[in-house]
Amino acid sequence: MSTKAELLSIGTELLLGQIVDTNANYLAGRLALLGIDCLHMQTVGDNLGRAKQAFERALARSDLVVATGGLGPTEDDLTREAIAAALGETPSVDPALEALDAASSCPSGTASRRG
């Protein structure tokens, strides 16, 4: 039996037609090359309740959920909170991982706090 996957694209800009979701297209192709069946794709805007519901729906019907978009450091990014809510968890920041991430993503060597 093959793995059933679902792609979940997050971002109001996708729903408004402001950008094209090339990530989903690329990821679906990569999953196929790995022998993973992508059976569903969802797009949801930057809304905590709807994103939580989308993750719950995806987790209920798929073995693998791949989320794309909505992971930037913007104030309207609710992806982490939506995943945590769908799993019944509380998101938290690990200071050691945050420092490692900041150090590896700042080419000048100066870390900046991301929201």
Question: What does the model show?
Answer:
By secondary structure, this protein is an alpha/beta fold. It has one domain: MoaB/Mog-like domain (Molybdenum Cofactor Biosythetic Enzyme, Chain A, 3-Layer(aba) Sandwich), CATH 3.40.980.10. It is built from five helices and three strands. It has a three-stranded parallel sheet, sandwiched between helices. The longest helix has 14 residues.
In a few lines, what is going on in this structure?
By secondary structure, the chain is of the alpha/beta class. Helix content is about 45%, strand content about 15%. The chain has one domain: Molybdenum Cofactor Biosythetic Enzyme, Chain A, CATH 3.40.980.
Q: What is the assigned CATH homologous superfamily? A: MoaB/Mog-like domain
- Unreliable spans: 111-115
Give a count of the beta strands, DSSP E runs of length 2 or more.
Answer: 3
Rg calculated over all Cα atoms: 16 Å
What is the helix tally?
5
Order of H and E elements: EHHEHEHH
Distance between the termini: 40 Å
